[in-house]
Amino acid sequence: MHPIPELTPLLKQLRLSGILDSLEARNREAIDRKLAFTEFLSLLIHDEVARRDNKKLSLRMRRANFRSQKTLEGFDFDRLPSLNRAAIHDLATCRFIDEKVAVLIAGPCGTGKSHLAQALGHAAARQGHDVLFSTQSQLLASLRSAAAVGTYDRRFQYLAKLPLLIIDDFGLKPLRSPDDEDFHDLIAERYERAATILTSNLDFPEWGEAFPGNKMIGAATLDRLRHGAHKIVLDGESYRGLKPGVETLRSELAKGGKIKQP
């Protein structure tokens, strides 16, 4: 008698139905290798644990709202020779999450700030941390939308308690009232309680310019972000290079040349 049909409802009742995915293969392996019952059971349990871990990771990745699969393995360090690779790999251990401090990344457009931030987020998710990636505009828009439907407190607490919140494009748009107050309140609530990554096109001394309407709120916000923070400057050429032929086109136009029509 084949035992799998009889086991199927029992495993489902115990919420162990994932074992069915590898049961036949493991059974054949146990017969071929003449494994003891305990060794066979160990293989099945390890399969189930791996399946559950992968399921949790997939869920964390969906909730993280990453733009794409940007990982540290795919980051082009060669374009940024002045960047300290060892420091970046140390950040990827995610000790900064346990330290509950910020990682502040500044640099010109196209130098890989968003890629690096998401890569650190991927590393955090793989290590079991809940992560959310959002632009500054999207983050504040979500709070405004929540306020409009009476769920502001719930949304705010969710954002405040996330182990890792990644805010992309900080300062790209000036923070006006009441967004500047919401942003300050969120950073203040997360201060020394959770880790935050910010990316910005502004140089670090210019970050105060993101709060044109209230310098005092800006100073208080940045003071909390900077305390114990890891600072990274990306200084290099843009990844978003011109398409082939565009530079030649510009050169010809600059010389007053005529472009032949196809």
Automatic annotation (TrEMBL):
Pfam families: IstB_IS21 (PF01695)
Gene3D superfamilies: P-loop containing nucleotide triphosphate hydrolases
Domain IstB-like ATP-binding: 11-240
UniProt entry tagged with the keyword Methyltransferase: no
A single BP term in Gene Ontology: DNA replication
Origin superkingdom: Bacteria
Protein name in the entry: Transposase-related ATP-binding protein
Source organism (scientific name): Paraburkholderia xenovorans (strain LB400)
